[in-house]
Specification:
The complex is a heterodimer.
Chain A: E1 22-29, E2 32-39, H1 44-51, E3 70-73, E4 76-79, E5 92-94, H2 107-114, H3 124-137, H4 143-150, H5 160-170
Parallel strand pairs in A: 1-5
Antiparallel strand pairs in A: 1-2, 3-4, 3-5
Helix pairs in contact in A: 2-5
Chain B: H1 41-44, E1 70-72, E2 78-82, H2 91-103, E3 110-114, H3 131-158, E4 165-168, E5 171-174, E6 179-182, H4 183-186, H5 190-196, H6 224-229, E7 244-248, E8 257-260, H7 264-267, E9 273-277, E10 280-285, H8 288-299, E11 303-305, H9 315-321, H10 333-337, E12 341-349, E13 361-367, E14 370-375, H11 380-391, E15 398-401, H12 416-428, E16 432-435, H13 438-444, E17 451-459, E18 465-473, E19 488-494, H14 510-528, H15 532-538, H16 543-556, H17 558-561, E20 569-576, E21 579-590, E22 595-606, H18 613-632, E23 638-639, E24 642-643, E25 661-667, H19 685-697
Parallel strand pairs in B: 2-3, 7-16, 14-15, 18-19, 22-25
Antiparallel strand pairs in B: 1-2, 4-5, 5-6, 7-10, 8-11, 9-10, 12-17, 13-14, 13-16, 17-18, 20-21, 21-22, 23-24
Helix pairs in contact in B: 2-3, 11-12, 14-15, 14-19, 18-19
Classes of the chains: A alpha+beta, B alpha+beta.
Chain lengths: 175, 710
């Protein structure tokens, strides 16, 4: 289908809807330049999942309260569900699909796999990207720092203790 | 000694699982029954017969033949088929282990297909901790039956006694002559294939626990790598060619009736499909945004007739006033009359939501009158029945595929999203994806029922329980019968008029009934002047429950710490679905924020022989932590038919910083049949906390969540 939105000319019936005009957004996703023509107030989450077919980023709440949709925007962890796609214009986005280098997993992915730090796995991509951002800021976090920084990420299976272990493993610490 | 199963293929019984059915009936013309789905590709590839499809929606029954359970492909792939689902609880690893153990191969050699009604046998819904005690043995039986036949084939081919045939690594060996054949080669002839197409005999010898090589060993979820790379496709990630996105018009409140709605504003939008079928109104469009816009346009025009609805403020009065047949009187009047002391208390448990991280989602696709639905449900065959009913087609025309999904916890027994997506897809003539929002999930998914639990008990002069009468109003009877010895006991479960749509939950009503019973046991201990541990042990005969309680108390240091009468420590225990749990908790009152903080928790659990130690520990630990939510904070508030807590910012579930210091311990009993572990470990933590609060402060809270108030 290509970039969705592209085949949707702006509606002219403005009685019921006031729609932002389609905007051309150019962003780098996982190292690749992508161009999307879309309404500028759509969320980054929706554009990643729907237009760019990157479904590793999950919808969990739509209000930035669960962080299943965490991606890296210029290296910082953001909730893609509350980030308008316009904010990613001319910026660099990394999603879960962009962490591994070929067959070689990112060390945080390796650590989550080694510790079995998932049950259903729905929070896992966001949790991993949140951890990548955490370790960028704090390469050797204490357990309290891990809990504090990841507190915004929800895991409904409540598998938190093994996630803490995985973060410590990724930081090169023995749990 | 061989472990023997006394029965044949187990039948799942779900009398105790509340099933909230989906009310849609789209009144389309009835279509003929065509057997279209029997021949799964997989099976057809080897010329083996089709999976025996059974009607009866999620009631189980299992496969009729070995071939319906196990498929040995010519490329040596071993495929196992099962009707269970993976929602994070660990069924995929466990069932893989079960098959691998009996087939004498490594777990990595097994390819497991779960919950595709077009391919797998109906093993019942994934609920009630049933996969371990029922489906694991069923898969083992199927695999063992295949193994025994392969041994027979090998013996016949080589002209040797079957006792001389060794099975390992996917091959049969005759060591004296250094011959070997792969399983697939052994089953190559039509005659042999036909044998595999016969029924699974009952009473087949299963590998004894002592000889287990795959079962009993920590085994990773087979598709774990896809979870960390984002490659796994959850139901909400499924995409089909030309797929549209659907949205459904929701009522503004419970039991609001749609009076009128103007569909024209949505129809005026390009590429938008609009459906009104009685009270169902929905739209489908090429993008989610377009669908949302179309829905918003018609939602503005909708007129609803609302009715007076109970609110959460008057919830318990509402349930009590509407108790069907009234509240039963205590039948033990003689014991009450002759007692030294009689205690009576009432406990309350509010509505709670499962809130799995992945909301309900489905993709529906019609092809030549046949329907395929990909969705996250714990009840694939039941969902198939719902779809068949709603669209008046034969079950054979409906295929439900359940990709491993993002959490269920007893909350996904239904298939609403699938039915809604299918209705839209039918009108659009294109596949439709429908993904519930978090607010929809919090509002329209069924809830853990609220309940009122009344208990009355009598004590004699020696602090012995002479009678026990418990009544559960509205939330169900799981764990209502006391495990403690009392002269006479009775538990009554009474229905009421539920103000919200209610259904199953992790451990059903056992969270409510165990909270009440274990709180009440502490109150009785106080009345009897005994330590709560002592008082329980005096009345506890079940050796397995005693063992978890005593072990937890010992690991927690109960004897030493309880010398301080003001220590914020409490304990509780319980049994459900054949497994046993005890928890000790240490709490502190955070005066500044006026709330309870759990500092430390010790939980001991026993469910017979352990199949997958790491996964079991994860279930026991995760359930305890999940249980902290309803214990301390989770409560659905509603007013005038509207849910006031329909988001994670208002309905606050446990997070990283809520995790106390934990000591989780499993007692392995290889001498006992394994029972399920996904539910019971959630039941003990709330009463342990309530009991700790009382000990620390003298304040007894009898309503969940345990909030200190103003």
């Amino acid at each position: 289908m290509g970039a969705a939105g592209a085949f949707l000319p702006p509606e002219t019936i403005g009685v019921y809807l006031v729609r932002p005009m389609d905007t051309t957004i150019t962003l780098t996703v996982n190292g690749q330049k992508r161009v999307v023509v879309t309404e500028s107030d759509r969320s980054l989450l929706e554009v990643l999942r729907e237009d760019l077919k990157l479904t590793g980023t999950k919808y969990g709440c739509g209000e930035g309260q669960c962080r299943a949709c965490t991606v890296l925007l210029n290296g910082k962890a953001v909730a893609a569900c509350t980030t308008p796609v316009i904010e990613a214009d001319q910026q660099a986005v990394v999603t879960i699909e962009g962490l591994a280098k070929g067959e070689a997993l990112h060390p945080v992915q390796e650590a989550f796999l080694a510790e079995n730090a998932f049950q259903c796995g729905f929070c896992t991509p966001g949790m991993i990207l949140g951890t990548v951002a955490l370790l960028n800021d704090l390469p050797h976090p204490t357990e309290a720092e891990i809990r504090s920084r990841l507190n915004r990420h929800l895991c409904r299976c409540c598998h938190y203790p093994l996630m803490v272990k995985a973060v410590r493993r990724a930081a090169g610490q023995r749990a | 000694m061989k472990t023997q199963l006394t029965t044949g293929v187990p039948i799942e019984a779900h009398e105790t699982e509340p099933l909230e059915s989906v009310a849609y009936d789209f009144g389309l013309s009835r279509r003929g029954f065509v057997h279209v789905l029997g021949a799964g590709l997989l099976i057809a590839a080897s010329g083996w017969s089709a999976v025996a499809q059974q009607r009866g929606g999620g009631r189980g029954g299992g496969p009729r033949t070995i071939a319906a359970r196990i498929h040995l492909a010519k490329d040596r792939t071993i495929t196992v088929l099962a009707g269970k689902v993976e929602g994070g609880q660990g069924a995929r690893a466990e069932l893989t282990q079960a098959a691998a153990e009996e087939l004498r191969v490594a777990a990595s050699r097994i390819q497991l297909i779960l919950a595709d009604t077009g391919q797998v046998p109906d093993d019942g819904m994934t609920a009630g901790s049933g996969s371990t005690p029922r489906t694991v043995p069923a898969v083992r039986q199927g695999a063992a039956a295949a193994r025994e036949l392969l041994i027979e084939f090998a013996g016949r081919r080589w002209g040797v006694e079957r006792g001389l045939v060794e099975m390992r690594d996917g091959k049969a060996f005759h060591v004296p002559t250094a011959r070997s054949l792969s399983y697939a080669d052994l089953a190559a002839s039509d005659e042999e294939a036909a044998k595999l197409n016969e029924g699974i005999p009952s009473g087949i010898s299963l590998s004894p626990v002592k000889e287990w090589k795959v079962l009993g060993v920590s085994t990773r979820r087979p598709n774990a790598r896809d979870l960390v790379t984002g490659a796994h496709l959850f139901p909400s990630d499924i995409s089909r060619p030309d797929m549209l996105f659907g949205k459904v018009l929701r009522a503004p409140a419970y039991n609001a009736k749609l009076i009128e709605v103007d569909l024209e504003p949505a129809k005026a939008l390009k590429q938008v499909v609009v459906v009104r079928d009685d009270s169902f109104v929905g739209v489908a469009a090429p993008t989610l945004r377009r669908a949302e816009q179309a829905l918003a346009a018609i939602a503005k025009t909708a007129r609803w007739e609302r009715s007076t609805q109970p609110s959460s403020k008057e919830l318990y009065e509402h349930l009590t006033q509407n108790a069907r047949g009234g509240l039963p009187a205590n039948p033990f009047s003689a014991e009450l009359a002759g007692a030294k002391q009689v205690l009576r208390q009432t406990y309350q448990v509010p509505y709670a939501q499962h809130a799995p991280l992945e909301p309900r989602a489905a993709v529906a696709e019609w092809t030549n009158g046949k329907l395929t639905v990909w969705t996250g449900t714990q009840n694939p065959f039941g969902c198939r029945s719902e779809l068949a009913r709603a669209f008046h087609v034969g079950e054979e025309q409906v295929r439900v595929v359940v990709p491993d999904f993002g959490g269920g916890f007893g909350g996904k027994h239904t298939g609403e999203a699938g039915v809604e997506a299918a209705r839209l897809a039918r009108a659009a003539g294109q596949p439709v994806s429908l993904r519930w929002t978090r607010a929809e999930e919090f509002t329209w998914a069924y809830f853990r029922p609220a309940g009122v639990i009344l208990i009355e008990a009598s004590l004699d002069e020696k602090a012995g329980l002479t009678s026990w009468h418990a009544v559960n109003l509205n939330s169900g009877r799981s764990s209502l019968d006391t495990p403690y010895r009392a002269g006479k006991t009775r538990g009554d479960s009474v229905e009421s008029i539920a103000p919200l749509r209610q259904g199953s939950y992790r451990a059903l009503a056992a969270t409510a009934n165990t909270f009440a019973r274990e709180s009440f046991m502490d109150e009785l201990a106080v009345a009897a002047g005994l330590d709560p541990l002592q008082f329980r042990l005096v009345h506890l005969e079940n050796p397995r429950l005693r063992a978890v309680l005593e072990t937890a108390a010992q690991r927690f240091g109960w004897a030493e710490r309880s010398k301080d009468s003001k220590a914020g420590i409490g304990l509780a225990c319980g049994t459900e679905k054949g497994s046993y749990v005890a928890a000790c908790a240490e709490i502190e009152v955070d005066r500044a924020q006026n709330r309870i903080v759990v500092r430390r928790a010790c939980q001991v659990f026993e469910c017979g022989a352990v199949l997958n130690p790491e996964n079991l520990l994860a279930q026991v630990q995760g359930a305890l932590l999940m249980g902290l939510g309803p214990a301390l904070r989770e409560e659905i508030l509603f007013e005038n038919g509207e849910i006031l807590t329909a988001s994670f910012s208002k309905y606050r579930v446990p997070r990283f910083q809520d995790v106390p210091e934990l000591d989780i311990h499993i007692i392995d009993r290889p001498d006992l049949e394994p029972s399920g572990a996904g539910e019971t470990p959630i039941i003990a933590i709330a009463p342990a906390i309530a009991n700790a609060l009382f000990r620390a402060t003298g304040r007894r809270l009898r309503s969940m969540p345990l909030t200190l108030g103003a």
